[in-house]
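Reproducibility note. Readers wishing to regenerate the assembly model reported in the main text can use the exact inputs given here. Chain order matters: entities are listed in the order in which they were concatenated for prediction.
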Amino acid sequence: MTATDPVAPADPAAGPAGAAAPAGRRRAGRRPPAALLVPAGLAALFALLPLGYLAVRSLERGPSFAWQVVADGRTVELLGRSVGLAATVVAASLVLGVSLAWLTVRSRLPGARVWSVLMTLPLAVPSYVAAFTWLSAFPALAGFAGAAVALTLVSFPYVYLPVTAALRGADPAQEEVSRSLGHGPLRTFLAVTLPQVRPAAAGGAVLVALYVFSDFGAVSLMRYDTFTRGIYTSYRASFDRTPAAALSVVLVAVTVLLVAAEARTRGRAGHARTGTGTARPAVPAPLGRWRLPALTWCTLVAAAAVVMPLATLGYWLAVGNSATWDPATLADTAGTTLGAAAAGAALTTLLALPVGVIAARHRGRTAHLLEQSAYAGHALPGITVALSLVFFAVRYAEPVYQELPLLICAYAVLFLPVAVAATRAAVLQSPPVLEDVARSLGRSPLGVLREVTLPLAAPGVAAGAALTFVLCMKELPATLLLRPTGMDTLASRLWTETGTGSFAAAAPYAAALILLAAIPSYLLGRHRT
Amino acid sequence: MTDVQIAGVSKSYGPDAPVLRGLDLSVPAGTLAALLGPSGCGKTTLLRIVAGFLHADAGTVTVGGRTLCGPGVHVPPEARRIGIVPQEGALFPHLSVARNVAFGLSGRDRAARRARTEEMLELVGLGGYGDRMPHELSGGQQQRIALARALAPQPELVLLDEPFNALDSGLRTGVRSDVRAALRATGATALLVTHDQQEALSTADLVAVVRDGRVAQCGTPQEVYGRPVDPWTARFVGDAVLVPGTADGGTATTPLGRLPLAAAPAGRTEGAVLLRPEQLRLADTAAGPQGTVTDVAFYGHDAMVTVTVDGLEEPVGIRVAGPVSVRPGQRTGILVEGEATLHP
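Running the prediction on these inputs yields the following structure tokens for the assembly.
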């Protein structure tokens, strides 16, 4: 997965609105102390740097040259392919997500609980792992079909989850009223139920589109030229890097539009019910003679999205032997991956702390600006962030070019939104009155931060760090571009081996990646419950 | 022992939202003063200004002769030596009870800290609770620990922000008197914010009724209840019987007869004459004002009898202690005891 994981909502749009949380009202007119403001400002600048530099760099040879690149037939073709792929994946995800959500929430589907867990599991599969499993089982899939299948099967939960929540929250009384007014079940579904879930489905669809546009792993392994792959090829193929920069600007523009669209759908969601009080849970619909087709449908999706990757992985692990892969190299790569991810998570969390505290506790133009800047990397394709850091390092920071610190910085820019959102939510959890009490008992603002705010927010901040750690570990495009020569992470190694068709050699890396990523995810799950 | 002087304090949240409009208040040292007012009257804003969490737009706050906020002066909260007891206690959930109480004692050595903590826990009747965590305490216990925490550093002034609100009514009276006793024992000056008139009257030495960002009246509970400055204040601090009347010297002529006034207005004045329901008595006489019982509401310890008085449009309430023998529809005579106030 290349962009910020949309499952952990880095909430740029819900920023100030989210402050309505009862425990954590913001304070008007209290300026953040300088000891917070300065590091937060640095973090914000840090987050904005790649975007700003990308713009500068793409215009370096004059706007007309940049326009030539953008208006070039090749660019239009890439854009067309990306749009086509995104449209296909979004349509397929909507069909899968909405139908499965209705079946698991509103019908008497046998084993509905098990199915609903199965349908969220694909979220844990990075797109390039999905691509690896499908490509290694059916090499003929390479191209559009393979990319569409792999991406749909990892991203449909982005539709499934919000629609499930909307169906659970929707008031069944509206459907009952529709039935009592003489509409049949189908008509009621189309006229009442579907509009109730439309905002949720639309929001999910935009997340899927964002995922597809910023995905690099699946499309590159499937050798389907979309924007991200085009940027990568153009960067690798030529010494002139301005075209890659100009293409990146176009890609950033598309993702910014999508993020804006997502914010809009989010604003409209949640009106599924008017009036007060809690809704009764709906009575599940009997499936009757549709029971078998419904079960078959669920089985097919679960088989394709969950069983198939695991089975393929198992197969390649079984046929592999010491000739195809070297345990020492695997251990080595795993160690490198863990180290880089730990450093990335540490830097990201450190940068996110001051911004998150300010976002939770202060209002005003400065606080708002800082928070929004930190969200700059939200949904930014990893490849564009990596590219802009390459440009920047080559020109101004030559010693770190192709060195580990630059890669760590890329991780921080990409995942800062996740960590800021986690910190902000954690701080909002504790009531501000505790900080007032601490002040009245003689603590300075910094003392309050150290002794009250941070200890109370620590579990939430740690959860954010764990999430960031997993995201760093799975990151592919920035790692490919920025890793030091000779360094491999599990993701980059998997990508290289799959690219050369060495599936048995790639499998152990995929398995290690999934296992290592599962540990923090498991801990996160325990923390939440 | 410290007195509190608040002079001309104003605060607005935006051009059209004034909250405090030049509020004045003077609290003598060692007094427990209640700020009583309806929600939105500005009492919590005032408390936050005194504590230093908000800046006043104008005015000064002086505690024990030290100006804490005024033109060009704003002492930060941590340097004010003012303790606060927020709603629901707000104990630090990550610290034990003892460490909560010791939070404000950071300047002292360990032994002194421990001794003071234990002393404070004893003061609020929770000695030996030091090792518990806040979530292991009941609401009333949390509130008492919050008071111990505020009192531990020997503050100049203690601010209590509706501290009994979250407690259920059975518990409230007990915690209220414990808090009062603890404050008395330390001799601390205290400001209690509340919207509950019973709480203000029963707990405080001094009651300041706040209305629309100003102090409408400030006096002892007896004064505020017995001689309210206007009908609004009268109704806000308790049940009121208001009848039209004409004052002439020390008495007023009303449909309830000639009533002695607490303060004689200058010359002949017409206005509303105020009594409390417990000043009225049901009497089995044909002399004096007469009326018809319209409703009887029984509360156990007393009852409120509503009577439509001949010559009065609005019915009056009469508080009757003990058992009630009258029924709706019955005729009755009415006697009035004590002094009334007249509001032109």
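We highlight two features of this model. The interface with chain B takes residues 28-29, 430-431, 433-434, 436-444, 447, 451-452, 455-456 of chain A (CB under 8 Å). Chain A has a mean pLDDT of 82.
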